């Protein structure tokens, strides 16, 4: 069966459904992935926050493949939401979101 995923919010119930259809608990999934049950529960609760590599690893354990296809004619992609505006008195380009001094994203615990 194919599932069209158009938003990251759709991932959570789909991941849960695949896991449960295989008769797996979060603890069993975590064991297969080499992480704690709590870590896997966090991933399942917010799959949008994990890297694509980690998501693909979860899909492999579940025996699910990711297939990308072009949308049918007449459908268009939705524009990305607008970025937050700077607060008055904030230098241009600064939105108040802190990043490490190196400019890199913080490391994920896995």
Automatic annotation (TrEMBL):
GO terms for molecular function: DNA binding. It comes from the Bacteria. Coiled coil: none annotated. Residues 72-110 are annotated as: Disordered. Residues 15-69 form the HTH cro/C1-type domain. PROSITE patterns: HTH_CROC1 (PS50943). SUPFAM superfamilies: lambda repressor-like DNA-binding domains (SSF47413). This is Transcriptional regulator. It comes from Cupriavidus nantongensis. The lineage of its organism: Bacteria, Pseudomonadati, Pseudomonadota, Betaproteobacteria, Burkholderiales.
